[in-house]
Amino acid sequence: MSMDAIIAGPDEDGLGDALEAEGVSVTRLEGTLSRPKLEEAGIVGTDLYVLTDVGQSTTIPIALDLNDDLRTVVYARDSVPEFVRGQLDLALDPALMEPAMVAEELVA
After folding, report:
1. pTM for the full model?
2. Most exposed: 36, 47, 59, 79, by fewest CB within 10 Å?
3. CA distance 13 to 31
4. SS3 20
5. Is 82 exposed, middle or buried (0-12, 13-18, 19+ CB in 10 A)?
6. Which pLDDT tens digit goes with each residue over 72-100?
C-alpha cells in the first residue's frame, strides 16, 4: 500500500526525507497556505498532513474539511494553538524524536 504525505512549512529536521526513505510520496508546501493551495497539492487524496510551522495551524481544520480520512501531525518545536489540538492525531517536538523514528511510526 502506498502512502502520500504533504509537509507544510520548512522541513529543517528532514522528516520529508525520512518519510521518503520509508516509501512515502511527499509533497512539500511552503509560504502562506490556503485552501486552494492545499487542494492543488492534492490534500483530498493524501493520507498524512504534517505541519512544521504552527503559524499555519489554521490549515489543519481546512485540510480535515477537505479530507475526513486525513491523519494530521504537527512536527515543530513551538506549541500548537489550543483551537487545533483536538483535531490533531499527533504533535511531536523534533528535539525529542528523530525524523527517522517518527517516519517509521507514521507508516506502521
Report:
1. 0.95
2. 36
3. 17
4. helix
5. exposed
6. 999 999 999 999 999 999 999 999 999 99
